[in-house]
Here is the input.
Amino acid sequence: EKESFELEWSTSYRYGESENQVVARHLQSSISFDLFPTGNWSPFLYVAAERDPFKRIDLRTDGGAGAKYTLARGEATSASLSLALLHTYENFTATGTDPEPDVRNHARWSLRARASRRMNEGWQVENTTFYKPVHNALGDYDIDSTTKLSAILNTRLALTFSYKYRLDSTPAEGVTGEDQFLTAGLTINL
Here is the structure.
């Protein structure tokens, strides 16, 4: 039913150790529902949750609705912009220096730009960037950008390299707001 709707669920878990100590542990899951995804305009619903003890995020949730406008759709090139209004809930882990951290509830705008381009001989580059400012305080924002380069091996298999940049302009006390990740992997399309 791809002409009528598209339902997508994504979950990721990142774990890392260095010198016998855990240095990364991040769990994130999201689900989105797009109505009429092949049209120029497509309304959607979106819900996400994440947990990251190293960022002192006990629980962060986003949920909301918006619309996507498709600028280009083709075999080699695609591009779209979307705008949504989200509710964000953030609950932080207590520490000795911050025994009662704030619980944050905000309405946020979410502006997403997405583009992909298939190059010659099986290479593809994609970028998805979110800018999510608090609706009445544009200086309080999150940026989440992922750029992925894929070497398409066959119709079902691709070797991928991705760079992810995340910025929280107002992180929990004692935590840096900027993260960068470089990953390599194998993508399997079923």
Notes: The mean pLDDT is 92. The radius of gyration is 18 Å. DSSP finds no helices and ten strands in the chain. The beta strands are 5-18, 21-35, 41-52, 57-73, 77-92, 103-118, 123-134, 137-152, 157-168, 178-188.
